């Protein structure tokens, strides 16, 4: 990954600039299985933090990511050891987000999951022993959000802490994109042919859970329910409230983890969902200037200014009026070099799809 980062960021290999956080850092329990497990590493105790985290920092990672089964004492030790040398973010489970916020974390990922315990009813919370491998886990998560009281004490405490400490919230609203878009629209989406082969291979393993269906490649049972749509609405309200009270909203995606929407196009969906919550201009800033600051790249990326990388999109339209106009891409500049978007897309794998009726 570090060699790929060097090749991409130097321009030796064509592609987006890459920033690497290393493995997802679990506790002693393993949060993922199958091909996803290759992304994991374990920090088994507080005593293991200097060796594990020190090795990653020495290797030159751009940040550290705490994962689902890391307990609070180890999470706090990781944050303290890093000591702001790079950003620390997290996809939380065993550790509640308020513990991480008060511990000095720089960011949280996924409105769906990291702040969940602060918003759901007490009897719906999860902690030690919860497993994302449990087939009931995500349905319960969605149901907990559907029923969440966004004005409860825990929700207000979370909002206040996020704003006071200026913790970045990586929203990934696109996790529930299908709840908004609908499975029928997904079946006929031309972007469907651009799902990468590696994501398709992972998605095939979901067929056993979804049953045989012609749209197995885009299917996401969690997002095809009324509960999924209501959970997404709650996530957008959380995002809007955080933004309006002075919090930091950063747009992002889980592409690769989810097969659909495909990379790049998933970010367009994220921007559209963000625009509904916080407006077009703020949504665009969430994936440019605010995101650059989160990565501590604000002197290089995220805005048009002398001395910054000339990474630009030229569109035939006005995305401030309608962010969907970002689709009208005319030219892509990467480091000041112009590329034809159609020529770039022609270089990536594409499938012939017989769209379902």
Question: Can you put this structure into words, describing what you see?
Answer:
- The chain has 357 residues and is α/β, with parallel strands linked by helices.
- It has a domain at 91-306.
- The chain has helices at 2-10, 49-59, 72-82, 97-102, 116-119, 137-146, 153-164, 177-181, 183-187, 197-204, 207-210, 226-244, 265-278, 280-286, 289-294, 341-345; strands spanning 24-26, 40-42, 64-66, 88-90, 107-109, 168-170, 248-250, 312-315, 329-334, 337-339.
- The chain has a four-stranded parallel sheet with strand order 2-1-3-4, with helices on one face. A three-stranded parallel sheet has the order 5-6-7.
- Helix 6 (137-146) packs across helix 12 (226-244) and helix 13 packs across helix 14.
- It is globular, with a radius of gyration of 20 Å.
- The model has no long low-confidence stretch (mean pLDDT 93).
Short structural description:
This protein has helices spanning about 1-10, 50-60, 70-80, 95-100, 115-120, 135-145, 155-165, 175-180, 185, 195-205, 205-210, 225-245, 265-280, 280-285, 290-295, 340-345; strands spanning about 25, 40, 65, 90, 105-110, 170, 250, 310-315, 330-335, 335-340.
Give descriptors for this structure:
357 residues, alpha/beta, four-stranded parallel sheet, three-stranded parallel sheet, globular
The main sheet comes to:
4 strands, parallel
Shape: globular
Structural class: alpha/beta
Q: Largest sheet, order of strands side by side? A: 2-1-3-4
Q: Report the oligomer.
A: single chain
What's the order of the H and E elements? HEEHEHEHEHHHEHHHHHEHHHEEEH
